[in-house]
Amino acid sequence: MSGAQLPVYSVSQVNGYLKELVDGDPLLRGLLVRGEVSNYKCYPSGHHYFSLKDEQGSIRCVMFRGDAARLRFKPVNGLSVIAYGRVSVYPRDGQYQLYCTQLMEDGRGALDRAFEELKKKLEAQGLFDPAKKQPLPAYPRRIALVTSPAGAAVRDMIRILRQRWPLTQVLVVPVRVQGEGAAEEIAAAIHQVNNRDDIDLIITGRGGGSREDLWAFNEEPVAWAIALSNIPVISAVGHEPDVTISDYVADLRASTPSNAAELAVPDQQQERQRLEGLTLRLRQAMEVQLDRDRKELTRLEQSRVLRNPVAVVDDQRMRLDGVQRRLAMALERTLRRGRVELAGLAGRVDAMSPLKVLSRGYAIAKAEGRAVTTVEQVQPGQAMDVLVADGVYHCRVEEKEEQQWR
Q1: Could you confirm whether domain 11-105 is CATH 2.40.50.140?
Q2: CA nearest 266: which of 374, 164, 159, 384?
Q3: SS3 202
Q4: What pTM did the predictor assign?
Q5: CATH says 112-266 is which class?
Q6: What kind and span of H or E run contains 339?
């Protein structure tokens, strides 16, 4: 390479040339760019600087004060937006960037924000409280399907319900599941079903679709209808990754409508096997009890009571006679012992009787009704009564003399 063959350009010349190329491209003079806001900054001058990025790249953006004044929302990092403007090169540093004149919220970003705002609001009001979840009936007699009557989802649910548990009756409550007014229609249908007394379970939902298609189940009227339902509700919206507000409020969330049907009723084959197992255990328990009763009956049959009941009665009669004899003998001994003890007591009582003492020549002197035991109790001239064995005589004290008897 020879310097004489190629001209030499300055950096500013190269940057200026690139700017002319970019500015001259019709595509880059006015285009829409979708991306996520990052590195957002608003300077005191009123100019906004940020980047738009997606999974594979990013582009620097600037929005001058005059255009920024017309914004109807405040850009924040992470917000999905659509920017309109032109791409040009900034000559000073050679960086190309998007000069935005308009900035709009991307529909997907707006939906995400609306979803999170409503979710936060309803959660604060207690609609997601696990304590408020109603248990599902084990064997529902009738299930109401609040869904579109024309979709594959309703056909799948009916088929699975009939296969798993034919005893359950199915009531289809037709509603629109997308579009304007769909949310109000779904909510009204849930309220209508609650006015009946023959419905045990409600399944509401639809098959898969875009975020916008499923949006009716993210609306507040549907959420409140589910929350106020006295009948347990299963939410079955879209496919496994799809999560709606209805899923949070419902008593049970199913990943798909088909899964909702599986969760709603038992499987008749499994129930049959369970009943067969219970029957087998019951039969075994009965056989064990019967065997125990047979052994007890055999033992009783071999006992002496049943083989020779007369001999058993005779033995008991003899035992009773012996008891009676021993009782009579014991009673006689007790009476004799009592007589002897009574005679002894009578003798001692008789020996201690005052009359017995008087019969031996003793007397009892009384003065003024009291027994006289000392000369100090009477005075000369005092009247006295003297009791002897066969009577009493009256006398008067002539004199008294104190005497120490030994």
Answers
A1: yes
A2: 164
A3: strand
A4: 0.53
A5: alpha beta
A6: helix 309-351
